[in-house]
C-alpha cells in the first residue's frame, strides 16, 4: 500500500519532532493554526502511531498526548518508559529510563502506558 507524504503530514511530523515534550492534539492545532484541520490532525496522529512514528500517551487528566518514537519499527513499539505531567506548568514528557516488564508466561505486551504526575524540576 502506497502512503502519500502530504504537506499536512509533513507539518505534523515536524511539529512532533521539534517538540521537546509530548504534545496534545490541541497544542498541535494551535501551533499549525488554520493550515491543517482538526480531523486531518487526528487521522495523521493515529496513522503515525500505527506506523511506529509516534506513540500515544493517555494522561491522568484523560487527554491523549503524542511523542515521536526513536527506536520503534512499524507496528512494534520498542519503548517501555514512564511519562510525567507537571501539575504546575502542564508539561508532559517521556522519561529516559526504560522499564523492564516481567509478565507471566504466555503474556505478550502490545502497549505500555506508565504515567506519573507531580512537579517537574523547574516547578518543584
UniProtKB/TrEMBL annotation:
Cofactor remark: Binds 1 zinc ion per subunit.
Presence of keyword Zinc: yes
InterPro entries: FUR, WH-like_DNA-bd_sf, WH_DNA-bd_sf
UniProt KW tRNA-binding keyword: no
Known cofactor(s): Zn(2+)
BP term (GO), one: regulation of secondary metabolite biosynthetic process
Residues the entry annotates as binding Zn(2+): 86, 89
GO molecular function: DNA-binding transcription factor activity; transcription cis-regulatory region binding; zinc ion binding
Keyword set, alphabetical order: Metal-binding, Zinc
Record protein name field: Ferric uptake regulation protein
Organism, as annotated: Adhaeribacter aerolatus
High-level lineage: Bacteria, Pseudomonadati, Bacteroidota, Cytophagia, Cytophagales
Amino acid at each position: 500500500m502506497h502512503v502519500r507524504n502530504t504537506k499536512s503530514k509533513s507539518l505534523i511530523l515536524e511539529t512532533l519532532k521539534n517538540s521537546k515534550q509530548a504534545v496534545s492534539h490541541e497544542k498541535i492545532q494551535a501551533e499549525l493554526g488554520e493550515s491543517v484541520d482538526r480531523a486531518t490532525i487526528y487521522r495523521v496522529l493515529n496513522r503515525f502511531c500505527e506506523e511506529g512514528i509516534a506513540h500515544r500517551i493517555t494522561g491522568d487528566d484523560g487527554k491523549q498526548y503524542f511523542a515521536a518514537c526513536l527506536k520503534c519499527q512499524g507496528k512494534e513499539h520498542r519503548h517501555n518508559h514512564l511519562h510525567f505531567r507537571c501539575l504546575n506548568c502542564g508539561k508532559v514528557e517521556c522519561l529516559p529510563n526504560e522499564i523492564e516488564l516481567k509478565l507471566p508466561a504466555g503474556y505478550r505486551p502490545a502497549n505500555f502506558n506508565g504515567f506519573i504526575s507531580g512537579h517537574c524540576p523547574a516547578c518543584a
